[in-house]
């Protein structure tokens, strides 16, 4: 009895078609090939979808794109220690029980230009890339100004609605980075202390993590934030990282020596 393949070839000849003997593939092989191709297509779609989600997370975070570990110079002991703690914090996200066990806070404190914001941003970028963590970076002073202007009911720019949307985002985001905490402030106003304390408490209840960046030492920070707000911080699992190395910002130096000025008025010389 002729095989199915032979019959197909005979039919092709009778119709004047070219016979390609090797073109026939049995059903099981064909199905396996189709399933493999389908799985590859699905994997590509998933990778593209993940890439788009990560790009959106980076965009919404408002992080400086240069704040990465690759761009960080580990030139002092405090930075080396901070990077070690940062990598431990990131690695802990592999454990679902750790992520669900409570709220975690990192406090980066030290003088200007020591790399606090850079390392906080590097942590955030890596968490977005590895775990698709939602991140929001904000300067506290900017939020407080926005909050103040939200009470201007005669404003035409919908500042009140914008702040309410921002307030919800501050509560919901997985990692909130607050920079310049109490910058140039000996103590926050009472209403600002209450607002920030309530925000931190709400995030604590929802197991959301925070990074606070400040130029104050811890004693000054406690005074600046006030008892109510600082008590909120104490409820978190807290990691305190002190930055004490040299400033990494370039000094402002004139490109050429300025000419010596002689006191007194000199009239124009007309020749």
UniProtKB/TrEMBL annotation:
Region annotation (Disordered) ranges: 250-271
IstB-like ATP-binding domain segment(s): 105-226
Alphabetic keyword roster: ATP-binding, Nucleotide-binding
Domain of life of the organism encoding this protein: Bacteria
GO molecular function: ATP binding
InterPro entries: IstB_ATP-bd, P-loop_NTPase
Protein name, as recorded: ATP-binding protein
